[in-house]
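Narrative of activities, Objective 1.

The group set out to show that a structural description can be obtained from nothing but a protein's sequence at a throughput compatible with the screening campaign. Below is one input-output pair from the validation batch, recorded exactly as produced.
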Amino acid sequence: MLKKLNILTLLSVIVPLLLIGASNYFFAASSYHYIIDPETMERTGRYWVGDIDGILMALTVCAIAIAVWLPSCYYGLTEKLAKHIIERTGYYRNYIKDNRRKILRHLTVLFSIMAAAVAVVMVLSGFSISVLSHSIKRVVFFASAGLSVYSIIMLWDKPEKLFFSLSLIIGFMYVLTHPFLFFGMDNEMHYAWAVEESYLLNVSVIDSDLVLAKSFQHNHFGWLPSGSSNAVVYSFPKGSDTLAWANDTELRTFYARITHMHIGFALYVGRSLALPPNFVLMLGMMINHLVYTTVVYFAIKRLNSGKHLMAIIAMLPTVIITSASYGYGAWLAGFFMLGFAYYLNELQNPDKKISIKNAVIMIGAFFLGNAAKPVYFPAMLVLYFIKKNKFKSEKQYRWYLAAVTVTILFIIASFAVPFIISDGAVYEDERAGDGIDSMEQILFILQNPLAYTGILLRYMRDFFDIFVSGWYLSWYGSYWYFSFPNILWLLILFAALTDRNENDRLTSTALQKVLISLIVFSTVALFITAFYISFTQVGADTVAGVQKRYLIPFLFPFFYVVCGFKIENKINKRAYSCFIFSFMSLVLLNGAWNTFIP
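Output recorded for this entry:
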């Protein structure tokens, strides 16, 4: 029976993929069927390769699924998965059977929240049906607010589940209510990269892709073309060009492309089903936010303490804006939270041997997170401080150290090798204007080490001044709106001091505090230097392009470890949890109301 289930499980993955590939050929090919020369704006005789590429994409993913399925069958993992599915299915079947009234009550509440949202909007619109038809965003907003309140009431004692629920409710509300061409924090560029990952071999740029990827540069904020008018503008072999506006000569490595592959696959599915361009756009945003929320959920679940502290940082408006769009800042922050959560959990369980699974997740989380910005590799140095007695044998410990070392060297090589081969040109950002020469800047640093040290330290002094940098916690991108920025600092500090238990004595030691502080300091020095080389004019006495939001991935480990003091929290647990999650929900809802809701 289990073997049959294994085959059915594989088919349940492969068959939808093949159908998507087929629909890509039949639907997408019929919708976008001619190419316009970007120079002359005349139709050419070239054919769009997107349809064939879509079939190849489906076949490739099927091949990957089979390649994973075969060894899983050999090691019995598929049977364990099948047993788990059968057990969970039986559990939920019995739960529904035994809790029909409870489920009906929940459904009634959800329906009442939706009805109340419509009623509130009708009152605000003066009971005008014509006005109400243009107030869908307000309905979504008030429904999200009601669902958020209900989630806090029902899940206050389960921080990871409450975060998951609130993050999805408010994050998806952001996606559904933001202005149509909302882009903040370089999302034109990130969208272009996602489009490139939605193809396997040949990238076909349709008119709506061009509008979205060039919207900032060309200041175009109109409606997207749809249907047969959404023509293919040009095509290029993947890896030979780029749609991104920031640097037309930039070629991304496979490691860097990991951060947009999941979004690219969502765009591929949406395009294959011939969804309208705005739906495809939102689908990519939703997938990005879903991945981020899921990663942080498992990070919070792994913690023995500090769950509310991590939830606060994970729900910062700047992070949610990035995750609910096309940026990769949330990717970096989310996987760093997961990596540090596993690392801290191992420190807090000194008598428990580390499993291969946990070691792989811990190293893999940092590896995936660094794909966004490899210059954050010093964060992985904490992994060397897991003691030898945590491993079952000395051989296993040596393999662990080798895996950590190889991963760090790979991350360093991912940005060092292209830089050396191109003489620094590959990282010269055109957005910085004239006077950018990476190799000349490096020579300046080497020839004037003391002068550059002074520049670096003066800049870092201002960079760490939180009293004038609270805004970066709640920055709404191109809208330049900020929601309670300074109060958020106080809330983070409050949770850092109070969200504690006896496990913290093993992670807030003097050694760990010094280690985390040095790692944060060295990483900040590295990415400031990177911007000085790639984004700043040669010999300048300041650094251009650095944004203080780049410090967000280190907020949790720093406040969790360095601010760990013996303070007993006697606050009522229900009041404590409800206050923190209610305030963070209020911050996010207030930001949405003031920026997205007409």
